[in-house]
Design a protein that fits this description.
Distance between the termini: 34 Å
Largest sheet: 6 strands, mixed
Order of helices and strands: HEHEEHEHEHEHHH
Strand content: 15-25%
Radius of gyration: 21 Å
Strand order of the largest sheet: 4-3-2-1-5-6
């Protein structure tokens, strides 16, 4: 599992859990997508000693369950309050939280500190990037397959190049 390496890093660094957020409906958090396959609004939490989980709005629950096994629903407008309740329900205690500063903003950090008054926050964005850089065997297989497909398409394009009349014809063929 991709999260195991990160959990080991959390233990070594005495960070109790990592929290990744996406509150932008027009974009997705690449780190959440990497670990879960989910591209919607919500939060992804990786406790150092328990199974990671997603917290998403009601309208996203079914979609999230298609890509990740442990999914909770959060209250309409109270994400951090919902996170607090779910952590309590799962008996996850924490003092230090790793945050992906690359996708966090000041308002998110203020809201987090308001809900969890005594926590310490550490930036884990470098670790998350390192995790995504290290490819699993499955990812390497997929990259090789994609390269083969792209190579075959370019070969066919070159063989048929005289048939194309415009750049648009080439672009259409490649697409």
């Amino acid at each position: 599992m991709k999260t195991a390496r990160l959990q080991n890093q959390l233990k070594k660094s005495k960070i109790d859990l990592t929290l990744m957020l996406n509150i932008d409906s027009l974009n997705y958090n690449a780190n959440i997508f990497y670990f879960t396959g989910y591209k919607g609004i919500g939060a992804f939490l990786i406790p150092k000693n328990k199974k990671p989980f997603l917290i998403v709005p009601e309208m996203e629950v079914e979609r999230a369950k298609k890509t990740f096994s442990k999914v909770y629903q959060f209250d309409k407008k109270r994400l951090f309050e919902s996170i607090k309740q779910i952590l309590k329900k799962n008996k996850i205690r924490f003092r230090t939280v790793g945050i992906d500063y690359g996708s966090a903003n000041i308002n998110m950090l203020k809201a987090l500190k308001k809900e969890f008054k005594k926590i310490r926050v550490k930036d884990v964005s470098k670790w998350l990037l390192e995790q995504r850089e290290i490819k699993t065997e499955d990812e390497v297989k997929k990259l090789k397959k994609a390269c083969n497909i792209a190579g075959n398409i370019l070969e066919k394009c070159i063989k048929n190049f005289k048939k194309f009349k415009t750049e648009s014809d080439v672009a259409f063929f490649l697409e």
